[in-house]
Each structure stands twice: as C-alpha cells, then as structure tokens.
Design a protein that fits this description.
disordered N terminus, alpha/beta, 8-stranded parallel beta sheet
Length: 549
C-alpha cells in the first residue's frame, strides 16, 4: 500500500469524513483526488472522476480516516524519556514495586562500572497509585541505594522528580538554590534538600544537565520517537512543553528529509514570568510551526497538587503518595499571576493553553482567561484548558461562553479510573472525571490526548473510552457523561485540527487541505468501542503518499 510523489493521485477506498455526522449523505466517500499533496476533490466515484494520467491508489484493505492528531503531546520530552538511556518503569510496563526496584537496581549496577558510558541512572514512570508498595523516596534512601553515581526517578505524571545527592551535585542544585516560579524543591525543617523537585521549573533544573549529555544523539532519538507516533496513526502532534533551543534539531531533521518530518509538529512554547514569545506569530511552515504558549495553574492529581474545593480521601493510597489526612491541593499560580503571564503573550495574539485539573484551578483559569480576553478585546483566541479532570458541567458552559476550548485526558479513566474514585476523590467527585460529554453538551469542540509518556499514545482507545467511561477493570465512572461516536472521532481529527489552528491544513478531508490520512482495519463508525480500541493501524499518509506501518 504505497504511492510515490506523482503530482496527481486518485485514491479510492472506504473514506470516512469525520467532520460530518454519520447520517450525512456525504460522510462516506469513495474517491479523492490529490494534486501536489492537496485534496482537490472528494466524494463518490460517480462524482469524482479519475483525472487523465493520475496515479491510482486503491486502498482495498481498511478504512481511510483523516490523519489522526494528538493535540497535547510532549514529543520533545517523551523522545528522551523513552530512549535507550532511560529505564522505563511506567505502570504500563512494570506492574509491581518489586519490578520497579529491580529494574532500577539493575541499571545502577550496570552504570556503576567505571567503563560504562553515561554514568548516571535516569528512570521514568514512578507511580505508587498503580505500583502498590512504592512510597515517595527520600534523598537518604536514594543515597543508600545509589551512593556513587547520580540517580533520578521521574514520577509518571512528569510533575515531580526524585534525586540523590550525586544527581544534585552534578546539576549544581544545593539547599540555597532558589525555587523557580511555580515550582519548588523539597526541603526539611533545616532547609536541607529532601530529594524531590516539584513542577516543571524545578524538574528542568535537575534533569536538563543529564539531557544535555545526549544532545549529539538527539536527532536519532527524536526521529525514532516521531516515527513511533506515525505507527499508531498519528500524523500531526502538538508539543505543549516546547523550548526554542530545540528548533535547530527539527530544522536539521527537515533538511535531511527534503523538508518533511515523520509527523507534522505544532508547538506551544513554555511560558516564563516576564518573558515574551521567542518567535514571531507568523512562523514556520505546514510541517513545523509554533501555534501557542503553555501556562500552568495547578499540577498532578497523582502527587496531590491539583487545586480543589474539597479534600483528598484519607487512606493508605494517599498516604503512599505523601499526603496528610484531609489534604487539599493548591494551585501553583494565583489568578493574577496567570493574568500577568498570559498577558505577556496574548498581547501579541498568541493562543494560550493552560494546565488545569482541579475545580478551583479551572475557576481561576477561566477568571484569568476572561480578564485577558476583555483586556485585549480578543475574538478568535481559541484559549485552551488542558486535562480538565474535575471540571464541572457549569464550568464547561462558562468556558464555551468565553470561546474557550478544552482538551481532556480521557485515558486517565482507562488506567486510573478505579484509583480516582476509590483512592483519591470518591464517587461524588471522581465519578465525573474527564467529563467529555459535559464538554460536548456545552458546545465545545472537545479533544482528547495522552500527554506524552503518561500513557501510551493511543488515540483509538481514547475514542473508545470516551464513549463508555469504563476503566480497564470494567469500572464505570457514571458521574460523567459519555460522548457520541461522531464526537469521539472528531476529538482526534477535525476538532484537534481546529484547536491547533490547523483546520485549513489537516484533520478534515476537504479540498485545499493536505491529504494526510490514517488507515485502520475496521469501520470506526460501526465497530463496538472495545473493538475500536484495539483496531490496527495499517498505513498513514502525508500529502497523499501512503506508507504501511
């Protein structure tokens, strides 16, 4: 199933136009003309004749969808976190505390050899909620396990990192190192480091010196990761933790591939207090372009720092993640700080995407967005709220009234559905987690995502779980509302393209757009959700050039 780069291609098959409702007579097509990478016609074979001299590509196997889009990924981080140099201890890979420690200790033994390359140990995916028996390690405990070389362990959420004394010394982090804005280093009553970094600013300071040692290998590492996204059907990915020092890396990959990439990249620069965007609003091309700026209100539900109006449950699970009885999470930034940071970028027309999980955080984000929209008289801003774990129907309605859109981490339900209800928040609050149905009912063009390495990148499973709200153990989170099949399909196609300011390039099969396609082995409009979740991706295409995966 391949096609070369002939200027005109006639593609036939079972073509699904996800931007249209299933009962629309134009929702299913049989033929598409692609000229110089762009769709020029789509419809039935009777309506779309084969142009003279066109190359014919008949997709006899599978169903052709718009190329799937991951609207909230972190490829620049995930490429490193899943590379050969990092121990993968995520709960989708290792299931018990003993497995996790065995993997870490094996790497410590290997890297303690004076002849070893990169004499440090970096592990990614620590999760006491799913890997029962793990508890938050102290710097003294990590020093005993690994006394001679740096050891870093990233929490599966990405919002905290544990480190030993050797790692702190390598990164030049001391008890006198000031906390970055919106982040912190754990300290005891005497001010000494406890071996944990909270939130992006602090995690970066401890991790980046190690990442820097891999810079010569990053073109291969990044290329491999982007190719991996293509194999699960992704043709465009948003990176919501982009740093501009990575631009030359992507430019180099493009230069080595005639200007293309394995997937199209839409980036969101990480915000900094007092900063402005490092590129102009008009930048890049249809392969690689910055479209927005990322800001944060709160943190991760798995480490206790999402801002809620109610306490976490008190039990062994919350004790294992270090929470005191009756713990209530707080935001990392005040509403005024969000207004100040967001205004630095919105004044120049940048889209803002704000990480907000707790109901208090969502209120603060909406208040900040409302102030910024009013301050600059913004119209088509497409401000985004990310994750939306405990966002309520009333808040979704308010978001829509402001022109704010949302991207939900529905796959949390798959892996942590039981934990959310039984261990963290109870049925009254946790049962409505990631309420995609409420977002859709409010009129929001909702999208779904997998957030880098937190879960595998699995858009088809996201579409399925949003229709059932059922965890992998069969637990149904009935406090929220499921979405229809049509909405689920749009969440990773047309809605995602719109959120990324790319609806006139990708995500919708219409004349003028790039012929980016994903081919799967079953009909996404008739397959049961559990069957859609396990569908096989057969091929993807950019600009009409199909490649089997």
């Amino acid at each position: 199933m391949t096609a070369d780069s002939a200027s005109t291609t006639y593609i036939t098959g079972r073509i699904v136009r996800t931007d249209l409702d299933a009962d629309d007579p134009n929702a299913s097509a049989e033929a598409m003309i692609v000229e110089n990478g762009l769709i020029t016609a789509i419809g039935s074979k009777a309506d779309v004749d084969k142009p003279a001299g066109a190359q014919v590509v008949d997709v006899a196997d599978g169903w052709v969808l718009p190329g799937l889009i991951e609207p909230h990924g972190h490829p620049s981080l995930a490429a490193f976190q899943l590379c050969y140099a990092v121990v993968d201890i995520r709960p989708v890979t290792l299931f018990t505390a003993d497995d996790v420690w065995a993997a870490i200790k094996k790497q410590i033994a290997a890297k303690s050899d004076p002849k070893a390359d990169d004499r440090w140990v970096f592990a990614n995916g620590w999760d006491p909620l799913l890997q029962k028996g793990l508890t938050s390690p102290t710097i003294d405990e990590l020093d005993r396990v690994c006394p001679d070389i740096p050891l870093l362990i990233v929490h599966n959420s990405g919002h905290s990192l544990y480190f030993n004394s050797a790692a702190a010394a390598f990164a030049k982090i001391t008890k006198d190192t000031p906390d970055p804005a919106g982040a912190s280093f754990g300290r005891d009553a005497k001010g000494e480091l406890t071996g944990v970094a909270f939130e992006a600013g602090a995690v970066e300071l401890i991790a980046m010196p190690f990442l820097a040692t891999l810079q010569p290998k990053m073109p291969q590492i990044m290329g491999d990761y982007l190719n991996g996204l293509r194999k699960v059907g992704i043709t465009t990915v948003g990176d919501l933790s982009w740093q501009q020092n990575l631009n030359p890396l992507i430019t180099g990959l493009q230069q080595a591939a005639d200007g293309t990439l394995p997937v199209r990249l839409r980036t969101y620069e990480m915000s900094r207090p007092g900063a402005t965007a490092t590129v102009p609003l008009s930048n890049g091309d249809d392969w690689f372009r910055q479209v927005g700026v990322k800001i944060w209100c709160d943190g991760s539900p798995w480490i206790g720092n999402i801002a809620t109006s109610f306490p976490y449950l008190t039990n062994e699970a919350t004790k294992a993640i270090g929470l005191e009885p009756g713990h209530i999470g707080k935001a990392n930034y005040t509403t005024q700080q969000l207004i100040d940071i967001g205004s630095q970028y919105a004044v120049d027309g940048w889209q803002l995407a704000c990480h907000s999980h707790g109901d208090v955080a969502v209120d603060s984000t909406l208040d900040a967005f409302a102030a910024i929209i009013d301050k600059f008289a913004l119209a088509d801003h497409r401000f985004r709220i990310e994750h939306c774990g405990l966002m309520t129907p009333e808040q979704f309605n308010r978001a829509h009234s402001l022109g704010v859109t949302t991207s939900l981490f529905v796959d949390h339900i798959t892996y942590w559905g039981d934990v959310i209800v039984d261990d963290l928040f109870g049925a009254d609050h946790g049962g409505g987690w990631a309420d995609a149905g409420a977002a859709s009912d409010a009129g929001i063009a909702v999208t779904f995502h997998n957030d880098g390495t937190v879960t595998p990148c699995e858009p088809l499973r996201n579409m399925a779980v949003a229709q059932t709200r059922t965890s992998r153990t069969g637990r149904h989170l009935d406090g929220g509302k499921a979405v229809t099949r049509d909405i689920a399909l749009r969440a990773h196609t047309s809605n995602a393209a719109w959120q990324l300011h790319s609806e006139n390039q990708v995500g919708i099969l219409k004349p003028g757009n790039h012929a980016d396609l994903t081919v799967i082995d079953r009909d996404p409009r008739t397959a049961a959700p559990e069957d859609l979740a396990t569908a096989t991706v057969l091929a993807t295409a950019h600009d009409g050039v199909l490649s089997a995966v």
